[in-house]
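Here is a typical sample entry:
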Amino acid sequence: MFGPEGPSLRELAVQALSSVEHGYDLLAPKFDHTPFRTPGRVLDAVARALDPLGPFDDGLDLCCGTGAGVRVLAGLCRRSAVGVDFSAGMLEVARHRVRPEDGPAIGWVRGDARALPFTAAFDLVVSFGAFGHFLPRELPGLFAQVHSALRPGGSFAFPLGAPTPAHHPAFWALLGFDAVMRVRNALWRPPFVMYYRTFRLGTVLAELARAGFTTELRALPEFGRRDDGSPRARLVVATKSTAEQGG
């Protein structure tokens, strides 16, 4: 479906009828040959935007997949860059594709983002393209976990695109995808949680504030601006107070 190295339509169907964890275990060997992987230009733009905010000692890539975000952290962090994901298959691919060189130590942890095994361990947490796997009601717990994993003064950063306008074909494609997933999850178990239109900026900012973060939005100029002058993509930077100790 995505070229000779990507998954076939049959493989995608099997993955879609699995749990999220098992589906990604199956997809892992071919994940980097699909459009689901975060594009390199997004990773590069985030790296450029974060660089002036450093220096950082230790970084965590939340829901790291095959490790593209850990590569970003390896260029920003002086001591360690860690990826956490609950798919053993994705982590196995990441271990082979992201190897320590002359930069910080690289680490991989199998774990659930909703129950992170870290407390005040990182200066920077990033995440790329994973938030569709969390229902809106899970955001308070997710953001609380990230807050606990950060040291005082640490930052939680992730890119967020502007909403697709209703006149654009992509709007209807994403709306249709979410509708299909809702029907699938109503009729089939285990559920496969992946929605493109549930992670909304207003809700995200409110939940970050509720978790104790101070948040700023930084335009990613590489992606230009919409007709109304607003950025097509932003970097959300949520910072934990320097006055807080631990979680």
Notes: Strands lie at 56-62, 77-85, 105-110, 122-126, 150-161, 213-219, 233-240. Residues 38-163+200-240 form a domain with the Rossmann fold fold (CATH 3.40.50.150).
